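Hi support team,

I've been running sequence recovery on a batch of backbones for a student project. Most finish fine, but this one hangs at about 90% for roughly twenty minutes before it completes. I'm not sure whether the input is malformed or the queue is just slow. I've pasted the structure tokens below so you can try to reproduce it. Let me know if you need the job ID as well.

Thanks,
M.K.
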């Protein structure tokens, strides 16, 4: 933590791993069952190079692990480690906060995709 700018703390250290916009969305996609690269790209809406970079950082940090599912050509799927699964309550808290403070109550996507916010992500983990 000492090498971090400003006040060294676990929050700052955590943000070094999951604080970039696409990082938690990549974790969300894996929680929701998108385990292959193309699925994660589609679910996040992120550019392919950003998803690749985030997956590399998350793998190096021990949040996700990469598993080969095909040899030729070699292809991988991604799974959460214990550290990754420990982020589910963080995602759940962000979901709840977003529904309460950011997303309009009459937003059609809110109703279609998040009818039971406090349990949706937890059930998927």
């Amino acid at each position: 933590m000492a090498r971090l700018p400003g006040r060294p703390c676990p929050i700052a250290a955590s943000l070094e791993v999951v604080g970039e916009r696409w990082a938690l969305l990549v974790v969300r996609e894996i929680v929701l069952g998108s385990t292959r690269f193309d699925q994660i790209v589609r679910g996040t809406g992120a550019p392919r190079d950003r998803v690749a970079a985030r997956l590399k950082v998350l793998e190096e940090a021990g949040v996700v692990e990469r598993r080969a599912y095909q040899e030729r050509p070699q292809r991988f799927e991604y799974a959460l480690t214990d550290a990754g699964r420990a982020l589910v309550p963080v995602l759940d808290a962000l979901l709840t906060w977003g529904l309460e403070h950011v997303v309009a109550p009459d937003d059609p996507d809110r109703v279609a995709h998040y009818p039971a916010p406090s349990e949706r992500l937890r059930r998927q983990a």
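--
Follow-up from support: It reproduced on our side and the slowdown came from queue contention, not your input. The chain has a mean pLDDT of 88. No action needed from you.
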